[in-house]
Each structure stands twice: as C-alpha cells, then as structure tokens.
Design a protein that fits this description.
By secondary structure, the protein is α+β, with helices and mostly antiparallel strands. The chain contains 23 helices and 28 strands. It has 4 domains: about 100 residues, Phosphorylase Kinase, domain 1, CATH 3.30.200.20; about 220 residues, Aminoglycoside 3'-phosphotransferase, Chain: A, domain 2 (Alpha-Beta Complex), CATH 3.90.1200; about 150 residues, Aspartate Aminotransferase, domain 1 (Alpha-Beta Complex), CATH 3.90.1150.10; about 190 residues, Aspartate Aminotransferase, domain 2 (3-Layer(aba) Sandwich). Strands 15-23-22-21-18-16-17 form a 7-stranded mixed β-sheet. It binds 4'-deoxy-4'-aminopyridoxal-5'-phosphate (PMP).
Length: about 750
C-alpha cells in the first residue's frame, strides 16, 4: 500500500480513497476522496516552529469555521486526538482538512457583484480574526507580509531590467515616505494575507470559501484588502473600477478608516513590488519553475498601469466606495488669488485654467483634481520625475553632509571626473553653479577674462538665462517684449532657419548663413570675445544649426581670437539620441560648454566646462565662489543622474522613441496639410504648424489649440518659436512608444477636427 494511503487509513480511518497531488507553493498537498467526501492532506517537513505555527493555524481555522460555517477548511482530528500526525517517512508531518467545493476565483467569470461578495466575506473573516490572539502568529516575521517589505529590498537588484527595477524602487520609496510614518496609527490584527485568486473559491455567483492560511500574519488590517485587491484586479483595464466593489462589500461589514483607505494605493503597489522582487530573486536559482513566476507578467502590467493612476484619484474613488466623503475638493480660485498676493505677475502660469500639481513620477504628473498628465514638455526631470535613485542620492547625502567647495570632500572630485569623462580631453575643467543662468553668466565672464575682448556674438532668438549678463546675450529677451534692444557689445547672428529663412537648401544653407554672418561681423574682427549658441535654438522653435554652419562660424571666431560657447542646457545629456552633447553632431568642439536643467534632474545644479587655458586665465587673483555650487548633495545627485542615464540606456531610448515619434509625425504630415517641418532629433523635437504649406505662414492658433486640447486630454505640451506656432516635445527620456502613440493620437484628433471645420 502506498504510504499516503496507509497513513490515511491508520490515522484517520479513511479507506480506499482516491489520492491525487495538488500544486503548492511551499509544501505538497494531496486531494483525498473517499466514498463520503473530499479532503486535502497537507504534507510538511518537520520544524519545531512550523509545528507551532500549524497548531495556531488550526486553531484559527476552527474559530473561523465556528463563526462562518462552510467557508473555511475545518481541520480533521486524527485517531490520536491531535490535528498533526507524523508520517511513515522520517521528518514528515501531516494534517488533514475538509475540502471546500467551488471553482477558483481566478477561473470564474468576474462580475462587480462577485467582487462585492468577495469584499463582504473578507470583512466577515477579518471581524473574527480581529478578536483572535495567537502568540505564534503574532511573533511571525514573514517575507510575504507587506509590513516586512524591507526583507525583499535586497532582491530589487535581481530585477534584470533597470527600467522595471526603477518602478519597484519608486514605489518602495513612496511606501517609506507615505505609508511608514502612518503605521503606528493603524489597526493591526491577524490577517489571511494571501487571498489571491487561487485561494478564493466561487460557487454560483458567490464566494464559497477561502483556503490556504499558510501566509497568515499579524499585520495591518488594511493589508488584507491590499492583497485581495492586488490579485483580483490583475489583467483588468480599469483596476480602480474593479477594486471599488471589493472595498464597498468590505466596508459595509467592517467599516474602514480614511487613513487606512488613503494608503491602499501604495499598499497595493508595495504588494506588487514584494511579489515581483521575490520572483526575480527566485528565478535566479530556479529559472524553470513556473510556479514562482505565475503572477509575474500580470503584476508587471499592473504596476506599470498603477503609475499612470493619480494616487489622489485612487484615494478619492476608494473613499467613496467605502461610503466616506472623497478627498478631491472642487477647484476654486483661492490658490490663484493667494499666489498673486505674494508673487509678481511677472511669473506666468500655463493654461487659461492653471493646474495645481501635487506629485509626479517619471513621465507622469498628478494634479490635485485626480488627473494624471503625460508630461511631454519638461526636459528638466531628464531621467524622470522623482527618479527614486536620484531622490535617494539626495536624501542620503543631505542627511550626511552639505558644505561648500572651501573644504575637501569626495563627491566633487568623483563627480567632476565622471562629468568631464563625457567631454573630449581638451575640455578639462569644470565650475559648478546653481542655474543655467548663472552658468551662462559665468561662461561669458570666462570668455571676457580669457580673451580680453569686448564683444559677444549671439544667436537670434537665443535664450541663456535671467541674470543681467545672460539677458544681454539673449536676443529672445533683449529684442522681445520689455527688452531694451541690442546692447552695445552684442552682435546678433541671424538664426539659420532653413524653413522660413533666406537660405532653405539643407545642403548649402549652413555655409551661406555662416558666410553672411562672417561678412556682417567683419568690421568687429579682433574684438569678438565669444560666440554663444545652442546647437538647436529652442526659443527660435527648435531650429537646429544646419550642416557646416557651426564649423565655419567657430573657425572665424577663433581666427580673430575669440572662443566658442555651446549652451547645452536644453540639448545635453543624451536628449538628442545620437550624441551625448548636441555640438558633437556637428563635428565641432567648443571651448566652453554651459550645462543646466537636466544635469540635476530638477535639483538646482548647473555647470560650466572649459579648457585649461580658459580656466587658468580666470585664476587671476579674484576668487570664484558659489555658496551652493558643487556642494556634496548636488554632486551626489549629478553623479546619480549620469549613472541612471547609462544604466537605463536613456540616450538609446531617446533615439529609438524619437525616431518612432518622427515617423508618427511624418504620417500626420502626409494626412494633414498643416505641418511644415518636423525638426530636431531624439526626444528634442519641434513641430512647425502652418496655415498653408505653400506660404509657410505660421499657425499660432492651431498650435495653441493643440496645447489646450491636449491638456483637457491629460497631456502636457508647449509651444515655442517667435510665432509660438511650434510644438516643442522634450519629455523625460523614459518616454515610451506607447506614450508616443497616445500623444500622436490626441494630436491627430485635433487635426482631424480642425480639417473638418475648414472643409
Ligand atoms: N540656457 C538655455 C538654453 C535655457 O533654455 C535656459 C532656461 N530655459 C537657461 C540657459 C537658463 O537656465 P536657468 O533657468 O536654470 O537659469
């Protein structure tokens, strides 16, 4: 007789039973059927603590079965009057439970009614568990408990794709920020902790049972719901919509507190992170074990989708499902009024109805009304809003040391070395400041001091910052509204625009524009200290320098004793996809490079990089000191930004997604007559809208219509250019092809609508 049959006979008086193996995560289960009924026999490897735990679990099942008969697997007493028996094989112990009929929740048709009944049975179960005490369960520290998420932190590194890993790191950081401080205030009790869709049974349109208490822990009451919801909403298009009936059903029986509900969004994410990092780790040792990875794909899908859900929206919907008042208040104008009490109107606000932002994550921004915006315009959070590694780098260093360059500290040397390694060897000195404006200002000071010449050549529509020196070199400002006109020492280069400018042949325009400039500057020969431009002139409407333009102009400037400055504030750090710095795409090497915006991913950090000779000339006795420039916190952040760009291959992503986007816009250009040019490369694009292709007359109205319509459809985009008719697209570099499809789809809706109105 087989040992299991023998055990059943000798210990439980079960004869002639049919026995089949069931799949289990950590132990072996047998389905046992005799003439009367079905049972589940569970087999374990003996450990003293396990025994203690199983005893506690049996007691728990007994209590639950008493309170809610039929829903739980009552343990069967063996002949020796205990619930646990030793097997014939040494080291094995067994227990027998009654079997509950029902289909697996995972394999039944889902309905909102079923989900509500799921919530209700969970609440009934938890009401009983709240009264139960068990030293063995309360003492348990278990990796599958969300409260013990720190145990799996060491597995994050086992998630192979850094772009996936960052999501887990992000939600873990949010857990630390949002959930952890609240834990002491929340209700704790014993919970099932694993009501995944394979542990929940359904008969008809109702839940008929909850099985497998192997994961039971003493945790937060709300974690019961977090786990249940996580698995129930796998694969759902509208996960919030499906979570709501569970919350509704639950809270009718066991009312939830606002502070518990408000954490659900983060607890669900935490459970996903826990599961995903554990499976990533276990896959390393058991790559072929399907059981480990069974929920991996739907969990990743859900985590990615979760990011696109505004946490405020989730909390609002969850509260309402629990029959509590929502957290989103109607928008009012108080915020705007308050702002103008203290701030000058010189600060503009985007959109006729401004947005109040609350949070952001990677390419998404969340407002206080529950909207999630796809950010296509902000090139400052270069590696993504609130990238967890960048945040952590800043937090760590801020808690350790923040001082200035008058002391020795490792961060500045480490970061300088890393940053300068991105430049050719002649650019070997770096100055750290706190804004692109301060960097442009310093770049001009360096050039003036080094060359001892008075004049600066600048680019038409160029913008380099808000200090007096940078305003003086920003045609966009001094020639724009409120500007005082061209300062005496400034020469303005006509922007070499090949769409509306004097020269339009891409092959020859660069040389022609350069020749014109050189001719116009001839009478200043010998007096020009510097020439400054961005390689793609942003405020001109993302106009890239045409081929051969920069080398011709650089040669001229240098031949008369000046230096060349590339402002890479907008274009640097891999944004253009083909090169780390945009000047590289023109085969020139500047003498001074201005860095800002993306360098600190939003932290106020900027830099000037220059040659040894220029740095030496500047060392003339006058000290250069910036209170904050190059402090350890900024350097740690800058360093992490560089590492993330490399680890997540963001420059390659910019190229790939940028090319995909260009193709998409080319398709729109074929269908609609209003796109005159698609300029730029990588994730630095300008789309020039015109009234008619022939006339190239700018269509400011259409570009602005797109901006406003897209805002209504939750996409942030901006315009630029002297006529404000160019859509500028400069999203965080983690932008995806799927995001691109969404962007193109929404733009097309406006274009379609527009072409229909014209017809
Ligand atoms: N240079 C360029 C090309 C810029 O776009 C900007 C900012 N828009 C600056 C310099 C100034 O940078 P900041 O706003 O950090 O002072």
């Amino acid at each position: 007789m087989n040992p299991i049959s023998e055990l059943l006979k000798s210990q439980f008086n079960i004869n002639n039973a049919q026995i089949s193996k069931l799949n289990g995560y950590a132990n072996i289960n047998y389905l046992v059927q005799d003439a009367q009924r079905k049972y589940v026999l569970k087999e374990y490897r003996y450990e003293p603590r396990l025994l203690e735990f199983i005893n506690a679990e049996n007691k728990l099942l007994d209590t639950l079965s008493e309170q809610l008969p039929g829903y739980f697997q009552t343990p069967v007493k063996a002949n020796n009057n205990t619930f646990i028996v030793e097997g014939l094989q040494e080291g094995k112990i067994y227990r027998l439970l009654y079997y509950i009929e029902g289909a697996l929740f995972a394999e039944t048709k889902h309905s909102k009614e079923l989900f509500e009944s799921f919530g209700a049975i969970l609440a009934k179960m938890d009401k009983t568990l709240q009264k139960l005490h068990s030293p063995a369960i309360e003492a348990r520290r278990y990796e599958w408990d969300i409260l013990q998420i720190d145990y799996v932190k060491k597995f994050f590194k086992d998630i192979p794709d850094p772009a996936d890993r960052k999501l887990v790191e992000y939600f873990y950081q949010q857990y630390n920020e949002v959930v952890r401080p609240k834990i002491p205030e929340l209700r704790h009790c014993i919970i099932h902790n694993d009501t995944n869709d394979y542990n929940v049974l359904v008969a008809g349109d109702k839940i008929s049972g909850i099985i497998d208490f192997g994961d039971t822990v003493y945790s937060l009451l709300i974690n019961e719901l977090a786990v249940a919801i996580t698995y129930a909403i796998f694969g759902k298009d509208d996960p919030i919509g499906w979570a709501k009936p569970i919350i509704k059903g639950y809270s009718k029986t066991l009312p939830l507190e606002e502070k518990e509900i408000d954490l659900l969004y983060y607890l669900i994410a935490a459970r996903l992170c826990l599961s995903l990092s554990k499976s990533a780790h276990e896959k390393l040792s058991k790559p072929k074990d399907n059981y480990i990875t069974v929920s991996e794909a739907p969990a990743w899908n859900l985590l990615k989708k979760w990011l696109s859900i505004n946490p405020i929206k989730a909390a609002d919907e969850f509260r309402k499902a629990a029959n509590l008042s929502g957290i989103i208040k109607d928008p009012n104008n108080e915020d705007i009024e308050k702002r103008w009490n203290h701030l000058s109107k010189v600060f503009s606000l985007s959109y006729p109805k401004p947005i109040k932002m609350e949070k952001a994550a990677f390419q998404y921004m969340y407002d206080n009304q529950g909207n999630t915006f796809l950010d296509t315009r902000n090139n400052i959070p270069h590696v993504g809003h609130n990238h967890p590694r960048v945040v952590a780098a800043g937090q760590r260093k801020m808690a350790q040391l923040n001082t200035n360059t008058r002391y020795l500290y490792d961060e500045i040397t480490e970061y300088s070395e890393k940053l300068l390694a991105k430049f050719p060897k002649q650019l070997k000195k770096v100055f750290f400041v706190n804004s692109g404006s301060a960097a442009s200002d310093l770049a001009i000071r360096l050039a003036l001091t080094h060359t001892q010449k008075p004049k600066i050549a600048v680019m038409e529509y160029g913008y380099h910052g808000n200090t007096q020196v940078s305003i003086n070199i920003s045609h966009y400002k001094f020639a724009g509204k409120g500007g005082k006109g061209t300062p005496d020492n400034i020469l303005v280069n006509t922007v070499p625009d090949t769409l509306r400018g004097k020269y339009t042949d891409e092959q020859t325009a660069g040389k022609q524009y350069a020749d014109d400039f050189i001719k116009s500057a001839e009478h200043n020969t010998g007096m020009i200290a510097a020439f400054i431009t961005e390689p793609i002139v942003s405020a001109a409407g993302q106009v890239p320098m045409p081929k051969n333009y920069l080398n011709e102009v650089y040669d001229f400037i240098r031949s008369q004793g000046g230096v060349c400055i590339s402002d890479e504030v907008q274009t640097g750090f891999g944004r253009i996809g083909t090169h780390f710095w945009a000047y590289q795409s023109y085969d020139v090497v500047p003498d001074i490079v201005v860095l800002g915006k993306p360098i600190g991913n939003g932290h106020p950090l900027a830099a000037v990089v220059c040659t040894d000779e220029i740095a030496n000339s500047f060392n003339n006795g006058m000290e250069f000191f910036s209170s904050f420039g190059g402090n350890p916190v900024s350097c740690a952040i800058g360093n992490e930004v560089l590492k993330v760009i490399e680890d997540e291959k963001l420059m390659q992503n910019a190229l790939e997604v940028g090319n995909y986007m260009i193709e998409g816009f080319k398709n729109l250009q074929k269908k609609y007559n209003c796109i005159a040019a698609i300029r730029g490369s990588g994730l630095s694009l300008g789309i020039d809208f015109v009234k008619k292709q022939k006339t190239k007359e700018h269509d400011t109205r259409l570009a602005n219509k797109i901006v406003n319509e897209l805002k209504i459809n939750n996409i942030l985009i901006g315009t630029d250019g002297p006529f404000d008719n160019v859509l500028k697209i400069k999203p965080p570099l983690c932008f995806t092809k799927k995001n691109t499809d969404e962007l193109l789809g929404e733009i097309e809706k406006v274009l379609k609508d527009q072409s229909e109105t014209i017809l």
